[in-house]
Amino acid sequence: MPVAYHDNLPNKPLVEAILEIKWGEQTQPDPAYPIIVGRLYEKVREAYPVIEDLPVVQVPPNMTIHVVRHRFRASEDGWPLIQVGPGVVTLNTTESYQWPGFRDRALALHPHIKESHTKPEALNVTSLVLRYIDAVEVDSEQMDMRDFLKRKLHIDVSAPDILFEGQPVENRLTDAIVQLSFPTTSPSGQVQLAISTGQKGGKPAVVWNTLLLSAGTDAQKGWEDFAGWLDAAHSVLHHWFFALIQGDLYEGFARA
């Protein structure tokens, strides 16, 4: 059955869209930090004028490698935003996400990172991640998580009946953490899907993370052809999202 796509779902379940770029080794502090913070802000301040320091700034930088410490927001408490720390930059947005705008912001950020680093020629990108976090509210008192996964997201999770035979255990799955990973060739890396019970707006929900990760030499190649990597990663995740929600969820998300 062909997958039905939609350019902009009126009731999309998106919680957050994230682009994450890491460079350097986990054990080696980035020599450009904190200089890169000021330089990067000067380049993006027109679009992201509001500076916010995170509580982790109280911890020494060499103990927070690849952990974001500062945010540049488009408006006070607003989105989208850029986050930066030792060896890491992220671009984040929420319900207002639309791919063309997010893509433009990501492509604009790419040269700013290179130009802000003290040694851009030595910028060794070790991880590129494009991630989408989606969630849908559920009635946790009545829901069988196994049934939801199978009927709504087309993921089949089962346990052998013998676990419950003669036992004081109800055969109803109330919580679950499902994680799947598959290799990709374009871009080179892996696509990951993680589904769990959680919350959305303070209410019980099923949350799913879909991401494409390129690491090591694959990440450096993706950094050198960043537009190509970004478009290829989005193409995979776009298909996965709509393939997962085909049926009842798609109809609900597409309803104006």
Quick structural summary:
This protein is α+β, with helices and mostly antiparallel strands. It is built from 6 helices and 9 strands.
List key phrases describing it.
single chain; 256 residues; alpha+beta; nine-stranded antiparallel sheet; 6 helices; 28% helix; globular
Structural summary, described in words:
By secondary structure, the protein is of the alpha+beta class. The chain is 28% helix and 30% strand. The protein contains six helices and nine strands, in the order E-H-E-E-E-E-H-E-H-E-E-E-H-H-H. The chain has a nine-stranded antiparallel β-sheet, covered by helices on one side. A hairpin with a 2-residue loop joins strand 7 and strand 8. Helix 1 (35-44) packs across helix 2 (99-116), helix 2 (99-116) packs antiparallel against helix 5 (226-245) and helix 4 packs across helix 5. The longest helix has 20 residues, at 226-245. The radius of gyration is 20 Å and the shape is globular. The mean pLDDT is 95.
Relative helix content: 25-40%
Give the N-to-C terminal Cα separation: 24 Å
Helical element count? 6
Give the strand tally: 9
The succession of helices and strands, N to C, reads EHEEEEHEHEEEHHH
The structure class reads alpha+beta
The side-by-side strand order for the widest beta sheet comes to 2-3-4-5-1-6-9-8-7
